[in-house]
Amino acid sequence: MSFLSQGFSADIVRALTECGYEKLTPVQQQAIPHARRGADILAHAQTGTGKTAAFSLPIIQQMVENPQSRRRSQVRALILAPTRELVDQIAHNIENYTKYVDISVAAVFGGAKMSSQERKLNAGVDVLVATPGRLIEHLELGNISFASLEFLVFDEADRMLDMGFISAIRTIMNGIAQHPQTMLFSATSSPQMNALAQDLLRKPKRIIVNAENSTADTVAHVVYPVDEDRKRELLSELIGRKNWQQVLVFVNYKETANEVVKELKLDGINAVLCHGDKAQSARRRALDEFKSGKARVMVATEVAARGLDIQGLPHVVNYDMPFLAEDYVHRIGRTGRAGQQGHAVSFVSREEELTLVQVEKLIQQRIKRVQLAGYEPASRDALLTKMQSKPAYKDRQSRTNNSDEQSSAERRLRFARAIKNKSNKTTRLKG
């Protein structure tokens, strides 16, 4: 099925052809006809399936068919996304789609100068892509108005819930008097996600491209059991032995990221960093070096799990298993995109066994274990059997966030404090 068959203008099709788009992906085939008719949409689809084009092209086409002069601080379409990287990527894609039509696109997110964003907003914007936090700052300063808003999109809505943006979303919605055409896209599902959809959408068309919370068929999964203190050595070993040329490595903490990059460089492997302590310009520079091949490895925290569009990325490594099982789906969604083959490799220490079981339950798939000689962890089976017999394991839940609970960042901070207190207590007992 071609884009021309969907009634898109010749100028839009021309731009899509230059982007290398030929046929509609499954999510585009299902979402575009409904979106073109003005329906609200609730879509569950994995990253790398063409979601940006699915929600943005119908919006662009409707703007082409119904041109309006830009008015000061007014926005016709608002697209919300959880991270800077994802906002930047969406805006870049839409700019490519609108190359031959008169539609303005702007992106606002933290880490960039407010003044330059203010100038763009004051001139009026057709399509605005934003993170919730920075958008609220502009709302409070009076730099933007939703009086003329026609389209509203929530991309990676599940991630916004995980990051504690529910109150920010409600603040933004309070500033929207009318009901624009609303589309909500999510890679995973939960009761909280369904409740949000019920609040935001009006008789939505439900689209499910893959089974909810599943991973792409193009990704091969493998687990390497390894003790925590051998992970850095194992990473260098695999990169060197298997001659991996482009590897995205996920860790849970910024300190771990710094240590891993340092270790890789000592082993002669060029690596770059991407985490929250890095300025946006530094993160973009690191991504450019990784994409171009100047850096063989990029080590990133969860901030990079969404929004990174790296064509043909062959390997994603979970150096640390994620705090939430759902984040496994998002992390490995960086590989196996657009029908290409990818490999998801996870290092699992004895302490992370329960997280692995939870991931397998979520994706309804047992992940292949590979034991590398020389890296065998001790007493693994005995520990797993013992842990599975505990009530805490049987009662273990998946995502529990909602509007009244802590964000994932707060939960992680509480976890870190608990570990620190336990360490201090052990020190006192020894003393």
From TrEMBL:
Q: Which GO terms describe its molecular function?
A: ATP binding; hydrolase activity; nucleic acid binding; RNA helicase activity
Instruction: Supply the SMART domains for this chain.
Output: DEXDc (SM00487), HELICc (SM00490)
Ranges for domain DEAD-box RNA helicase Q come to: 1-29
Cite the Helicase ATP-binding domain residue spans from the record: 32-207
Q: Where is the composition biased (Basic residues)?
A: 414-431
Q: Which PANTHER family match?
A: ATP-DEPENDENT RNA HELICASE RHLE, ATP-DEPENDENT RNA HELICASE RHLE-RELATED
Report what the protein is called: DEAD/DEAH box helicase
